[in-house]
Amino acid sequence: MNLTPEERAIGSQNFLEASGMTRRTFLKSAAAAPSLGAAYFGYEHLKGNPVKVGWIGTGDEGSILITQHPPEYLDIVAVADIRPSNLKRAFTGDGNDDRVGLIKKLGEKKAKTIKHYADHKELLADPEIEMVVIAVPLNVHAKIAIDALKAGKHVLAEKLMAKTVGECKEMIRVARQENKLLAIGHQRHYSVLYDNAADLIRTGALGDIKFIRACWHRNNSWPGVDPWRKKVPPEDKEALDSKVQEYGFETVEQLCRWRLFHKTGGGLMAELGSHQLDASSIFLGKKHPLAVMGYGGRNFYGVKGVGSKDKQEDEREIDDHVYVTLEFPGPHYAEDKNDIVIVTYSSINTNKHEPYGETVYGSRATLITETEQSIMLFKEGAPGGDSGGPGQRLRVVSSSSGGAVLESSASLAPSSAAALAGTTMGKISRGYTEEMEHFAWCIRNNIPQDTPVDQHGLRCPGKVAMADAIMALVCNEAMRLKKRIVFKEEWFDPDNPATPEDDAQMKA
Questions:
Q1: Cα separation of 37 and 441, whole Å?
Q2: Angle at which helices 141-150 and 165-178 cross, to 10°
Q3: Is residue 364 a contact partner of residue 385, using CB atoms and an 8 Å limit?
Q4: 204-239: per-residue pLDDT in tens?
Q5: What global pTM score does this model have?
Q6: Rounded distance, CA 190 to CA 461, Å?
Q7: Residue ranges per structural domain of the chain
C-alpha cells in the first residue's frame, strides 16, 4: 500500500492508541526489552537451572534460532549438522546480525565447551541433553523429530511441521506415547505485536471482517542473489558426496538447495505462506479453512530465453509465483453458510516493492502488518461524517456492548504529522526468543502437552502446527491440480487417520 511516511506514522500511532483499550498493556515496551515472554504472556520466569538443549541443524534458520536463544532458559550443550560449513557458521556466525554465532553470543570460553556432532544420532545419544531444537530440511523433519522423541528428548522443531500430514500425526502420536513436549516454530504465536493485533480484532473494533490479503514478495531475479540457491561449499561437497543418499538426498546440491525440489521441500507455501496463513487463522480466531483454489507456476525460472544465463540453468522444480484464495468460516457460519471470509495469498520472486505482511479489511477499519515489525490502523469514513483514511488520527471509546469503537479526531496539521513521522518504536522481537523461553518454562514446570493456552500451555503445539501444515500442503495441491479443494475436519484431528494426501480430491 502506497502511504506517505506521515500516514504510516499516524497509522502506527492509531494502533498503539487502540491497543491501549484492550487487555494487552505491554506493546509500547516491546522494543525496550529483548524479550517480554514471561511478563507479557503471564507465566513466571524460569526457576531452576536452564534446560540443557541440543541443536540439530545449524543452517539459515538454525543459526537465527541460536542467535535468538535465551541463555537464562536454555543451556546449549551440543550442536549437530552433517554439513561442515554449517557447523563452522554455528560458532563463528556469518557477519549477519541475525546469525552472530555462538562465540559472539555466549563468549569464547562457553562456546569452547559446546560439543559438535556430524550426525543427529550422535547428539541424541548424549544423556545430558533434555530437549532439542530441530532446523533441518523439510523431508527429514518427521524422522529426526521422532528419533528425538523416542530418545527421550522434548522437541521444538522449525516450521513446516512435516512433509505430509500423515507424518504430522505420527509426530503427535509419538510425543504422547513418550510423554514429551512437541512444539513447532510458528513464531507469530509468540509475537507481542501480533497478539495485540489479534486482541484488538477480537474486540470488534474493525467491524465485520470479510477479506484478508497476505503477501510475501521478493525479487530473486538478479543473478546470484537467490538465498535458496547458494553455491555449495567445497567442504560440504567433499564430506558428503559419497554418503549423502543415506540421509535421504540424491545429491549434495539437493541437500544444500533442498527448498527448490518437490522431494525435499514444500515451496513458497511451506516456507513463507505457512506463516501468513497461520497469522490469518489467528486473526480469525484460529479457524480452519473451508476450501482453497489457486494458481502456481514457474513463470520466471521456467521461461527459456528470458533473463540471465544463471536463471536459465536453474534446476528448481518449485513454483516461483503462487496465488491462492481460501474460504474461511465467519463468526456466524454455523447459522448462515453465506458468512464467509476470503483470504488471498501471493508470493512472487520478481518484485519486492511491497513489504511482506497482512492487511485485514473490516467494515469499520483496516489493519496492516508489515515485516513483523509494525502495524498500522486506519478508520473507515462514516457516511456524512468523518472521512477516515490514512491521514486520520483515531480516538477509541467503549461501546454499550463493551467492545472498542473507533472514532476519528481531526487530521493532523502537516507540521505535527511530519514530527510524528520521525518517531519509531525500534526493532521488535519477532517471537523466536519468546517461543524458546516458554518451551523451556513448560519443561521445567511439567506442563502437559495438551494444556490449554489460557493455562499457560504451549501456544503452537503439534495440533495447531499441523493445521498450518495442512493449509500450506493443500494449497500446493490445489495449484498442482488447478481445482478447488474442500478441507475436511478429520484432516485436522490427530486421532483420525484421514489425511489430505490419501483423499480422493488429490487425484488428478
A1: 10
A2: 10
A3: no
A4: 989 999 999 999 999 999 888 899 998 999 999 999
A5: 0.92
A6: 12
A7: 1-30+382-425, 37-190+433-460
